[in-house]
Amino acid sequence: MPSATTEELDWFNLFQRQTVSAENAARYLEVFADIDVRPILKNVQAPTLVMHARGDRRIPLATGGELAAEIPGAEFVTLDSDNHLLLGREPASLAFVAHVRQFLSAPLTVG
């Protein structure tokens, strides 16, 4: 979170330490490092919203676009942020919530 303040980073670090053990955090990182869902994306049949921060330094924007492009009918939205995890104070956080609300309120079409 490159635009996080020292206080926000301190809070996030404390939050992580309080919500997961070191062993589980290490296991999580091991497991998720090896997951590759690309071969099955074309099988997704649910409405899908993919959002990605334009300046994400953890995962490139192109990766989000590629993911969305492989899911039939997926909507891809870019958010104006440099953060992988959005900060509540940044406008991209409000945009994220607005896009989710709009997506969830859209009529569901089957088939």
Task: Please give a structural write-up.
Helix content is 46%, strand content 9%. It contains 4 helices and 2 strands; from the N terminus they run ααβαβα. The chain has helices at residues 6-19, 22-33, 61-70, 91-105; strands spanning 49-53, 75-79. It has a two-stranded parallel ribbon with strand order 1-2. Helix 3 (61-70) links the parallel strand 1 (49-53) and strand 2 (75-79). 8% of the residues are buried.
Task: Summarize this structure as a short list of keywords or feature phrases.
Rossmann fold; 111 residues
Helix content: 40-55%
| Top CATH class | Alpha Beta
How much of the residues is beta strand, in percent? Answer: 5-15%
How would you name the CATH homologous superfamily? Alpha/Beta hydrolase fold, catalytic domain
Q: Which segments are poorly predicted (pLDDT under 50) over 5 or more consecutive residues? A: none
Oligomer: single chain
Mean pLDDT: 94
Number of helices: 4
Number of individual domains: 1
Largest sheet data: 2 strands, parallel
- Please trace the helix and strand order, writing H or E for each element: HHEHEH
**Shape from CA axes?**
globular
Under the CATH scheme, the architecture is: 3-Layer(aba) Sandwich
Distance between the termini: 40 Å
Using only C-alpha atoms, the radius of gyration works out to 16 Å
